């Protein structure tokens, strides 16, 4: 599938998913494909820390760390985070480099449902590594009325 | 105006990895919520956060609606030289906020209690830069 096709697919998915807005594991796979291209995604080296149970999906602490020397020759270029059941699969992309010293970042995310979150690290040698975590969410984000 | 909290160590040893924490007040309205009348509330998010260290970019985060309100971002950088860490958040509806924090980087062998101005020059500069 071409990049345009993927983008159109994602656009279509988000249009269809207006009510209730929801990505699917398929949409997440497409979003991941869009980032990694045709490269193979290896499992490992990425540690994704999320609480196993979250009472409030509006702010779930997330930490991603990647095993890497973080030298000029061998470092993490980017860390991408995806979800499978949020309204859209993309969560955040962190762009780092050897100046980071270590490949560890943290933020707080929204989760619309109990689901698996995937982090993918893009390394300077062109390889991709992934890690995942599953969170049980009791109060979902995103879908409440204002 | 958005209020910002930044946590950067005021001093660090040369080569030390420092942790930087930033928090900015922002609703991060997702664009997926509706009012009670059913109207979609338009998206209003911060899309990009960039940190530069003496004008060199060291970190960048591209944000989506799945980032919680009041984005909190933690990352690290190597303390290379004294100077300024600048932070910029940009987003929907022309949102743009810039903040900065100074950092003093001390040489590897310097004792922490010496505030001396003039020092014998260190003969060699290690590292390629």
Short note summarizing the structure:
Chain A is α+β, with helices and mostly antiparallel strands and 146 residues long. In chain A, 18% of the residues lie in helices and 38% in strands.
Written account of the structure:
The complex is a heterodimer of chains A (146) and B (129). Helix content of chain A is 18%, strand content 38%. Chain A is built from two helices and nine strands, in the order ααβββββββββ. Chain A has helices spanning 3-16, 25-36; strands at residues 41-43, 46-49, 53-54, 60-66, 76-83, 90-95, 104-109, 115-123, 128-137. In chain B, the strands form two sheets. A five-stranded mixed β-sheet of chain B has the order 2-8-7-4-5, with no helix packed on it. Residues 109-129 of chain B have low confidence and may be disordered. Chain A binds chain B through residues 21, 58-60, 63, 83, 86-88, 90-97, 99-102, 104-111, 141-146, and chain B through 17-18, 30, 32-36, 41, 53, 56, 58-69, 71-78, 80. Strand 7 (104-109) of chain A pairs antiparallel with strand 6 (72-78) of chain B.
Kindly list the characteristics that best describe this protein.
heterodimer; A: about 150 residues; alpha+beta; six-stranded mixed beta sheet; three-stranded antiparallel beta sheet; 2 helices; disordered N terminus; B: about 130 residues; mainly beta; five-stranded mixed beta sheet; 8 strands; elongated; disordered C terminus
What is the topology?
The complex is a heterodimer of chains A (146) and B (129).
Chain A: H1 3-16, H2 25-36, E1 41-43, E2 46-49, E3 53-54, E4 60-66, E5 76-83, E6 90-95, E7 104-109, E8 115-123, E9 128-137
Parallel strand pairs in A: 1-9, 3-9
Antiparallel strand pairs in A: 2-4, 4-7, 5-6, 5-8, 8-9
Chain B: E1 4-7, E2 11-13, E3 17-24, E4 46-53, E5 56-63, E6 72-78, E7 83-91, E8 95-106
Parallel strand pairs in B: 2-8
Antiparallel strand pairs in B: 1-3, 3-6, 4-5, 4-7, 7-8
């Amino acid at each position: 599938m071409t990049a345009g096709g993927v983008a159109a697919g994602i656009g279509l998915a988000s249009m269809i998913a207006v009510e209730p807005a929801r990505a699917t594991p398929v949409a997440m796979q497409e979003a991941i494909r869009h980032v990694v291209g045709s490269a193979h995604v290896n499992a490992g080296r990425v540690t994704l820390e999320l609480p196993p149970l979250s009472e409030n999906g509006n702010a779930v602490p997330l930490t991603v760390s990647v095993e890497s020397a973080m030298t000029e020759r061998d470092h993490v270029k980017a860390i991408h985070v995806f979800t499978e059941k949020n309204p859209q699969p993309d969560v955040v992309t962190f762009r780092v480099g050897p100046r980071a010293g270590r490949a560890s970042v943290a933020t707080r995310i929204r989760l619309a449902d109990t689901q698996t979150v995937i982090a993918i690290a893009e390394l300077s040698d062109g390889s991709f590594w992934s890690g995942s975590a599953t969170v049980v969410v009791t109060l979902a984000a995103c879908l409440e009325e204002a | 105006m958005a209020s910002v909290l930044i946590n950067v160590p005021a001093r660090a040893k040369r080569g030390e990895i420092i942790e930087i924490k930033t928090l900015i007040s922002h609703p991060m309205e997702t664009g997926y919520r509706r009012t009670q009348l059913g109207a979609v509330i338009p998206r209003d998010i911060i899309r990009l956060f960039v940190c530069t260290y003496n004008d060199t970019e060291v970190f960048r985060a591209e944000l989506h609606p799945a980032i919680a309100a009041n984005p909190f971002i933690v990352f690290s950088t190597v303390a290379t030289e004294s100077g300024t860490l600048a932070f910029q958040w940009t987003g929907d509806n022309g949102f743009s906020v810039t903040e900065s924090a100074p950092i003093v980087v001390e040489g590897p062998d310097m004792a922490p209690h010496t505030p001396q101005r003039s020092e014998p020059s260190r003969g060699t500069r290690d590292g390629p830069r």
